From TrEMBL:
It comes from the Eukaryota. Keywords: Membrane, Transmembrane, Transmembrane helix. Residues 1-13 have a biased composition (Polar residues). Residues 1-29 are annotated as: Disordered. The keyword Secreted does not apply. The keyword Phosphoprotein does not apply. InterPro entries: DUF2985. This is Uncharacterized protein. The chain crosses the membrane at residues 38-60, 180-202, 214-232. Pfam families: DUF2985.
Length: 273
């Protein structure tokens, strides 16, 4: 046998594996890093408040679900459907607590949602093109963490600090997604207001039974659609800007987008072998 092949095979056995070209570690290390980041965020004042808020919704919502399923037969006295039974009393208590928790976000975020709706009306309903551009630019700035606006040089002029190499081959976010997010957030506050009116204006004896389930379902549905759409769009934009391999899953834009404004023609660069 050739000595060179023997030496090559022996060296290949002890040669360390090349690092991952994607720059990602093992799945176990990735989850550990995510857990560390989550616990660090949870120790912040905002993270602690959001965590406590979420735990309250899960706890009281789970208790309400168990009561609705008759998971505690001892509370059905004299009967499960009796208005004076402990089961019906605790269902009312849980419903009022959950309604108050939902009002925190539904009413607390209402000023910002009304502001977005005003900008949306200026964008979609204004007669002046300048007013519509300014309103869309403002909305794009507010939602810049997930919304990628088409950088038309007529709308956003290019600065002198930018170069032709600062190009992102990511498709701009469709404008209809901004419509869904703005109206989804606003309708969440509207449905929450309707729920609060029925919960506080009526008692458990004369309140229509269909109102609670209807408005809770509608409020959760519109907020969930808006939240999922923002999350998916944010992941799409991040994936397209991180590495070129992800662009196989994302349709390319007809014109490349220059960071901050402007467009340029893309010409491939020949790499040396």
């Amino acid at each position: 046998m050739d000595t060179r092949s023997i030496a090559g095979s022996s060296l290949s056995e002890y040669q360390p594996a090349p690092p991952d070209s994607t720059g990602k570690g093992s799945p176990k290390d990735t989850w550990r890093n995510k857990l560390r980041e989550f616990f660090r965020w949870m120790c912040t004042p905002l993270g602690a408040c959001i965590t406590l808020y979420g735990l309250n919704i899960v706890a009281w919502g789970g208790m309400l679900f168990l009561l609705m399923c008759n998971a505690a037969p001892a509370m059905c006295h004299p009967t499960c459907d009796s208005l004076e039974s402990p089961r019906r009393i605790w269902i009312e208590i849980d419903s009022q607590i959950l309604n108050a928790l939902f009002c925190v976000t539904g009413f607390g975020l209402a000023p910002w949602r009304i502001r977005d709706l005003y900008r949306w009306c200026c964008w979609r309903l204004a007669r002046s093109d300048a007013s519509r551009r300014n309103a869309l630019n403002r909305l794009a700035e507010i939602h810049q963490n997930w919304f990628l606006k088409s950088q038309d040089p007529d709308l956003l002029p290019r600065t002198s600090k930018q170069s032709d190499q600062e190009i992102q081959w990511v498709t701009p976010t469709p404008l209809w997604k901004m419509d869904v997010v703005v109206w989804g957030n606003m309708l969440n506050s509207v449905f929450q207001l309707c729920l609060a009116v029925f919960m506080w204006a009526f008692n458990r004896f004369n309140r229509p039974s269909w109102t609670t389930g209807l408005f809770v379902g509608l409020a959760c549905a519109v907020a969930g659609v808006a939240g999922i759409l923002m999350w998916l769009e944010k992941k799409r934009v991040q994936k397209g800007s991180e590495h070129p391999g992800a662009l196989l899953l994302i349709p390319r834009a007809t014109d490349p987008i220059i960071l901050g404004g402007g467009s340029a023609n893309y010409s491939p660069v020949d790499r040396k072998p």
